[in-house]
Predict the 3D structure of the following.
Amino acid sequence: MDPRRIHFSSDTSEEQAREFAKGRGTVDCCYPVKCISGHYGELLAREKKKLDVLFSPMIYSLPSFMHGHVTDSLACPRVMAAPENIKAGFIKEEDAFAARGIKYAAPFVALADRPIVPKQLFEGLRDVFPGLTLRETQMAVDKGYAALEEFNDELRRRSREVLNECAEHDRPCLLVLARPYHMDIGIGHEIEVDLQANGYPVLWGQYLPTDADLLEWIFRDDLDAGIISSPFDISDVWPSSYSANTNEILWGAKVAARLPWVAGVIRLSSYECGMDQPTYSPVQQIVERSGTLFFSFQDLDSTKPAGSVKIRVETISFYLEKYSADIIAKKKAASPPACPLAAVA
Amino acid sequence: MKLIGVDVGSTTVKAVLVEDGAVRWRDYQRHNTRQAEKVLEFLSRMESECGLTAGEDRIFFTGSGAGLLGPFVGAKFVQEVVAVAAAVEKLHPGVRFVSEIGGEDMKTVFFTPTGNGTAKQVYMQSACSGGTGTFIEKTARKLQIPAERLAGMDYSGLDLHNVSSKCGIFAEADANTLVKAGVPVEEIIASLYEAVVYQNLATLTKGNTPMPEVLLLGGPNLFFAGLQQAWRHHLQKLWSERGIELPDGAEPADVIHVPEEALYYACLGCVEVGSGEDESVAVYQGSEKLRWWIEEGQHEQKAKEGGRSLASEPSELDAFMSSYGKPGAAPTAKSLHQTNPDAVYLGCDFGSTTAKAVVLSATGELLHHSYVMSKGNPIEDAKSILHQIRAAGYENVGGLAVTGYGKDLLGDILGADVGIVETVAHATAALHFFPDADVICDVGGCDVKIMLLRQGTVADFRLNSQCSSGNGAFLQGVAERYDTPLEEYSSRAFEARAMPTLAMGCGVFLQSDIVNQQRKGWAAEEIMASLAAVLPLNVWVYAGQLQNLAACGRKFILQGGTHRNLAVVKAQVDFITERVPDAEIVVHPYPGEAGAIGAALCALERAGNAEGSRFRGYETVEELNYRSTTNDDTVCSWCECNCRRTFIDVELPGGKGRTWSKIPLEEGWERVISGNSCPKGLLEDVNEMRIVKAELEETKRVFPNIAEMVRDDAFKATRLAVEAARRNT
């Protein structure tokens, strides 16, 4: 199929929900899940280039760089079930998909378990795309994972560049610990952009560099002491390591605590997130015990609380400016020698 | 035999009397919080006008006041939604959707035909004022629109503006902003109707489509022509979007009904339900007991429920007063730099309604404080407060720091050494005296701030400046109502031996709750005590959303002018101690000036590390040459509010000027913008936006953001590539 025939819904926004999700809401308190109604509604309402298929997979598990070092890499069960849950709002009285001649495809996929993905997608899509073969699906899946790897590698490379720069000049940077959907401007409200504008480079937990030399340096003491079995082992702080994004957030907290130039951590979470709630204290404690500043923006929902974000950002900037140099010095003193980042290299 | 249905609502009482299937008597009236009295009046009239007879006729009650009052007259209680549904099924068998909007609640009912009858799904909302009748009326009152005019005002054909649909108080604030911006009241009211319909459709449909035919019930739906128009507009739009066909030949308007007796459906439903009951049920017992309740019972009840007071016995109050009653020994503050021991350090807190300033000695001792009410012109406010300080004899200024909204506007003009965000100012003031502070609770006249401290920083905070729930203005309003000077509030409140229990939460409902308690016979000091008692709940739980106080820490600092009121302090101490038994609670030695003190301390700290002050000096400030411009060219065009801003141009050495502006400014001048209602309005126009954006882009280039790269690479870049390819084919 011509890739140009693949269309995406636009960025999440309050207007999108107002316009397209009216009366389609189903019972789910998870704000990011609720947003999906607006995306479905927008895609269904298209006048030009009407859709043939609405593809919204039920993602059971996620490809995570920590897979193999943790119990599992599952998606949040709410997110996994979201396609079914949101669909319900569109078929309650009348099948809104059928009424517009749209096939609804929500195959169940375990993206962490790469070998079985082609089969899952093939089973889920063979009726949607008549003539689809398993071989074709296999090829597409291989391409997809390759593209994802390339994308991730590039961003990790750029994160390392930022860290090199900070290490070289002993300058602070910020690390955001959040779920990937907080990068959606309608869910995370670009809060990290406001901090960036105050003169702080921003790293994101899921894209921290994973180069062996750096991780060996960061976790050397813990590895030597036998506290962890690999740099990605988080069993010392989070024994129930089954959720991919949660694992990554906990791991990010450990890295933040050990990387001297991460002077502050910004935690984002959405309204009443049941997955995030148990992680609030451990993440905060891991980060703060190292003397790193920790600030959280919780209960984010549809509106960007612009006034309070401004005050928060100014508050954070004030303390970063005041304490960064001390924090970096103190953390450097507690670090192993010979950091592979530019400063010591 | 007559059947009577009485609907005792939050703002009105409605009643019908039915005999032989026909309505013989009906009325509805506002009860102005005297529910029982109004019900008694109705019953007496039915007795004299229609011969309502005890021991013979039957009576059914529904509505929020029914559970309390019904039993006094032998009435049976019928749940409101059951009543409304019964009436609708009888009178309009074809109706599939009902919206009933009341004074303080709203409901929707969906009827779905099933094999042997109709399935009903009911949704109701009564915890908040958003989307209810009060929501509309409160704003209309503020706009001074009389009820008769409001009833006739239109929705159709008017420009709509953004008005919060979530909260009556937010909506009122939005309406204020729109008024200030010169938006006609007609458009504001139309926007309110839009908000009400939106709120009903957004929260009370849960995936169901309101299908024709539709019935709109309740006072607001009946009385406000514009609200009916808004419903018609939205329902028609929804039906056409969802391809819902109307019955043959019907126009959308034909299937949306607002029956003339829309107010009486709950009453009629009571009668309908009652007619199916056994004749021995709900026989009218006469109004004697109700009369007893009005004259004696409610007062006895009052005495019973009011067993508690702010202090249960004199010894408890004495103990409290000995800890908090008089200013304690001055707490030990951190030692401070003394590079210039003769200089003083100024901290100014420019708030939205007041400006405060303090003078600290080089050792951090508070020497003086001043206070002015804001006149709306930040330069005049600054001149006036600095003039007071100079008049008090403090000439040798070693440093100046500003905080509050004025910090961005006035920093350069006054030559402030530091501009401090409010949170940091308050935290600095608290930590100076109490280095082990965990939580700061600042309750001002118009806002509530809670700051959680960790590692010497404000790690988290809650700010409530939009909703009146929890702030000090309420106490002041009530004190004024009872002619009590604010300084005497606490001594009067401590006199109360009992007090009513007020409901936490929505300030709109709290107002009517106070009136209600007053009518029950509670005295001024008792109401004042209860208001102080409910304040911590509103501050911590409702405004602060903090359920677990123990997790916040154990040392609590109370700041803000409202904590000068000892009745509030007592309530705070009890509230906090109950949740955090080992809590240490202290009132800041200068509660009202904490923000300004924090700023001054920052100026003092900076003076230890830097050379000289940037302060332009009293004379320069007093002689500041400035001109204000307010005309069509200063109107903000970032959104449809179109605020009429004021440009205040100040002559300052080194001023950059604004040659690109519509109102050009020569070099040697700086511009301050006021009269804007949101931060965006601080940018003059697209020209300034361009300049700011260019600076921002440069900052972004130097300080990269991985999330932005993800957004660009994963979505924008892919989308652009695909779109380009699409264009090329």
